[in-house]
Amino acid sequence: MIASLFCVAAIASAADVITVGSVSTNAVVVDVPVSIRDVSGSPLGMDQPAGSRIQSYSIKVNYAPASAVQSVSFTRAGITAALTPTFESSPSSAGSISLLDTFQESTNLIPFTLNGAAPGNQVGHLIFTLSPSANPTTPITLTLDPLLTQLTDEGGSAATKETVANGNLTLVNGVINVTTYVPAMSEWALVLLVAAFAIIGIRMRM
């Protein structure tokens, strides 16, 4: 009896996972992976019958400070790169960007690895171009929006929708740590200008 209760509790608490990667970089352009882990016992997944697979996702990432990012894109990658979505959109605003994709299960099944090692299968990536203000003293936080990030089947069925609110989805946030400050072109120009004046001054003294 007790063992049965534990099994029921385990199934009820099963949750799929969306993860934004963490990256340390000294580059201006940064590639951050976004992954989904398909966990058995959740409403959606490879262990569920046809029609209840993870075939649609809405993933919104908030990044801060926004001033540290010059531009960002959010596109499919990994196991979804070769698939053809029936719907795709990547809306953005200051400090946030989203990726929304829906795939037809019968023709473009997303091939998740059930219970794969964390963070699961990569489904997208964020490409950040950092601004000159990005420096080692200010990590760039990458936070998944708990209200707008969700998983559904291809039809968006409310019965199997996975969200943080209903306990069927876990979110893992990421961060970009800039290990070396990259001066802006204007600062390089300033350094060269100062060096040029120094050389001119030395020659004049000679």
Give the radius of gyration. 23 Å
Q: Give the overall silhouette.
A: elongated
Q: What about the largest sheet?
A: 8 strands, mixed
Q: Compute the number of structural domains.
A: 1
What is the CATH architecture descriptor? Sandwich
Mind telling me the CATH class?
Mainly Beta
Distinct helical segment count: 2
The H/E string reads HEEEEEEEEEEEEEH
Topology-level CATH name: Immunoglobulin-like
Estimate the mean pLDDT confidence. Answer: 87
Low-confidence stretches: 1-12
Structural class: alpha+beta
Give the end-to-end Cα distance, rounded to a whole number of Å.
Answer: 97 Å
What share of the residues lie within helices?
10-25%
Q: Which short descriptors sum up this protein?
A:
alpha+beta, single chain, 5-stranded mixed β-sheet, 206 residues, Immunoglobulin-like
